[in-house]
Write a structure and sequence with these properties.
This protein has about 375 residues and is of the alpha/beta class. About 45% of the residues lie in helices and about 20% in strands. The protein contains 15 helices and 13 strands.
């Protein structure tokens, strides 16, 4: 059996999406004779070296950098269509987005799996606020076509499954919830260039992540003079410019340390030695309506680091009260209260971190994810 995997996203990179893609490909390489991957060109070769020999990546380059998003999406759909059409080997095609899906759903030699981590109609208006309602409606029609035409749907969150059944009237039995995972992480030495006392934020810097809320919470922590915030960005430095302006406005330049696109081992060492890891997700369609499964939370669980998270259905799917501290989303004062409690009560904080680690071992390793995904494939075959 041959597997085809497509994503209108760069791979490999240091982003969480790339981590998810990597482990999905590991799962597919264990049950398929060949795995062909169609994606945008990545910029980090470290993940690529962990893939099996039967996984072949076909990166897509754009000759004209001036093309807009929709033009690029159309070209990528055409690439996926022609590449999968040229191969007459029967198999299963898995796609992460509607642009990849348009290239697969009409291939008669493929059964298809729509991996819904995010929906274009929800995420694109955040990137491009001037999109017209008619264009968003057209995108939703494409989403519906992909959801109805595919043979099965996998998604990492029960919130997302609920949205698909209510918004698009998809049969619940057609959707499998397979949470993201994390690696089992060995104990690492503390990096010598880090401050003695710090909390950590890691991941991408989109507005819905809530990093600005975390920065503003430091206004209520001025009595912790030695406390620092280490921000490990999975994207390039230019994405942090708005946050640097906010940091200057708040007057906390001496307390904030930025790092960019770290290797996994370096990142894990920083997380393990932090006083707490913060996931300050905001309200909004992306987190509340569509749903998500933050890998930053799962990796923090695997690192045995105390977790402070915004109290949303997507975070309560992963953590219970005895496993983390929760604050009301977008309330920087409530967030500062949680940070203060962790700093002042290391014993209970570490106990919650230990409880979260045990839950990670029981439910959220990448082996768990891969076994569930392989089961979906066996059922389709």
């Amino acid at each position: 059996m041959k597997s085809y995997y497509a994503s209108f996203d760069a791979f490999p990179t240091s982003k969480g999406a790339s981590t998810h893609i990597c482990h999905s490909l590991q799962a597919l390489s264990g049950i398929a004779d060949k795995v062909d991957v169609y994606c945008l060109q990545g910029n980090n070769s470290a993940i690529d070296t962990r893939l099996a020999e039967n996984v072949k990546i076909y990166p897509f380059f754009y000759e004209n950098e001036a093309q807009n998003y929709l033009e690029r999406a159309r070209l990528f759909s055409e690439k996926v269509y022609y590449c999968t059409a040229l191969s007459h080997e029967k198999g299963i095609g898995q796609f992460r987005d509607i642009w990849s899906g348009l290239g697969m759903i009409k291939q008669t030699h493929l059964k298809t799996v729509f991996e819904v981590n995010a929906l274009t109609s929800v995420e694109l208006p955040v990137r491009f606020p001037l999109l017209t309602p008619s264009l968003i409606a057209e995108i939703q029609n494409i989403e519906l076509a992909c959801l109805e035409a595919c043979d099965h749907i996998v998604t990492p969150s029960a919130v997302t499954k609920k949205y698909l059944t209510q918004k698009f009237s998809i049969d619940r039995e057609k959707i499998s919830v397979i949470p993201n995972g994390a690696e089992t992480i060995s104990k690492k030495d503390k990096p010598i260039d880090l401050p003695a006392e710090y909390i950590v934020y890691f991941g991408a810097l989109q507005p819905w992540q809530g990093l600005d809320v975390l920065l503003k919470s430091f206004r209520y922590l001025k009595d912790y003079e030695s406390l620092n915030l280490v921000i490990c960005s999975s994207v390039k430095e230019k994405a942090a410019r708005p946050y640097h302006k906010l940091i200057e406005h708040l007057g906390i330049q001496d307390q904030v340390i930025f790092m960019y696109e770290l290797e996994k081992d370096d990142l894990y060492a920083i997380i393990q030695h932090a006083k707490a890891s913060v996931a300050p997700l905001k309200f909004g369609d992306r987190n509340v309506v569509q749903g998500c499964c933050p890998i930053k939370i799962l990796e923090s669980m695997a690192c045995k680091t105390p977790i402070i998270a915004a109290e949303l259905p997507v975070t309560k799917e992963l953590l219970a009260e005895g496993e983390a501290y929760f604050f009301w989303p977008e309330d920087e004062q409530d967030l500062s209260r949680c940070i203060r409690f962790v700093l002042d009560n290391p014993g209970p904080a570490n106990e919650k971190a230990e409880n979260a680690f045990h839950r990670f071992q029981q439910q959220f390793t990448w082996d768990h994810h891969n076994e569930h995904l392989q089961k979906v494939y066996h059922n389709l075959m």
